[in-house]
Amino acid sequence: MNTIVQLLQIATIATQDNFIERYPLVCFSSETYPLLFLSRFLEKIKKETNYFIKTIDETILDEPSSKAQLAVSFLGQRFIFWCSDISQWPARQKKEFINYLASYHGPHSIWLFTDDSEFIKQNKSCAFIILTSKIAEAEIDQYLQLLGDHNKLVPLLMHQIFKRKKLIPLDELVLTATYAQVMSKPLMPEFINTWVYVIISQDQSLFDLSNYFSLIVNVRVTI
Q1: Does residue 189 have a cis peptide bond before it, meaning omega lies within 30 degrees of 0?
Q2: If exposure means fewest CB atoms within 10 Å of the residue's CB, which of 51, 129, 177, 214 is most exposed?
Q3: What CATH superfamily classification does 3-130 receive?
């Protein structure tokens, strides 16, 4: 099952009443951690469901009161607890947390990212979503639809990027879509000629690109 199908499935199931009973634990895994993409995906889940989303870190099990958040539902409130990339957690906290998750069954749903194959082997009841590290141009529309991005400038801009490279990381798609939000069609040629190389360069900092779009926004506000 490919990545987009898995993501669409979990997004659909998350809107159902028995979601947490079915998936008290959801794990994303990939070669690299797509921070921007998963942040946008969680925004979508939050908008389309009644769940609160709360970020937790490696200190969650250190204090009884913090740990109790995972085990107790106050007035029937259900949370999706987002752990981000637990691969980066200190070894002790990560091991303790993995052991805790091995027998976790709710009342909330815990979501995380990891590149640790041992975690995947130990948690057979977890819903695993293997994220592709890069996507092709033919997949762009599906991913934009998944994220709820209907800006018509994004496919046009992505087409120019794909003229220069065959595959792009998921975070690059999100980054490009974000910049497209503050771009008008007349600005497209200038952007393509001047800044596309920044996006497609693995070694080039995006600092100047960010400043460029900040300037555009400031000019619009002034006008």
Answers
A1: no
A2: 214
A3: P-loop containing nucleotide triphosphate hydrolases (3.40.50.300)
